[in-house]
# Entry
Amino acid sequence: MSQAAYRRILLKLSGEALAGGAAFGIDAERTNAIATEVAEVARRGVEIGLVVGGGNFFRGVAAAARNMDRVTADHMGMLATVINALGLQDRLEKQGIATRVMSAIQMPQVAEPYIRRRAIRHLEKGRVVILAGGTSNPYFSTDTAAALRALEIQAQVLAKATRVDGVYDKDPLQYPDAVMYREVSYNEVLSKALGVMDATSIAMCRDNKLPVVVFNLNTGGNILRMAEGEAVGTVIR
# Structure
């Protein structure tokens, strides 16, 4: 059995990842596959925090473009992340992994309120902690929420799971000649507007020296490979 490279990880998942091939909602088979990989990493003794987006139910910016108030739209998006967190919790617990959902928006009948010290304590006890509700503030993406929570829980790495193999010089889904970086600096990501994460989250990671690993979630086993320190995807440092 390989040795894990990290003691504590913050894994960022998009809401679309839980939808599988569908345009809307949660695909049970896809969510179960992700939970299986996360469970395997947790069984290796790695402490895992998860931040999941809500784009499979609601995209705040797109709704704002349809003349909805941006603050209202973003709050709806935050609630969508709670739905996804509960779905992922269900799948993880069916794998026998103790899991807690903590929400930045208080809803005690559904999730624990996010309290930093309590989240760290859950991690220390071997529980997977799913951090929902974004930052509870509008105008901040779930990428920024992931960077913030990673720093707060003292994660050693922020791992962003995407649909592509890593960070490219241009969108590989549109340009076949796109070139992938194996390693890239925070400043290069910002100056070249590489778009893998929003500028606020990259700047937060840079200012606090938190490395970011960007990898393809659709390649089976990549979560475990990342946790073991294999060269999957792109490292931003």
Observations:
- The mean pLDDT is 93.
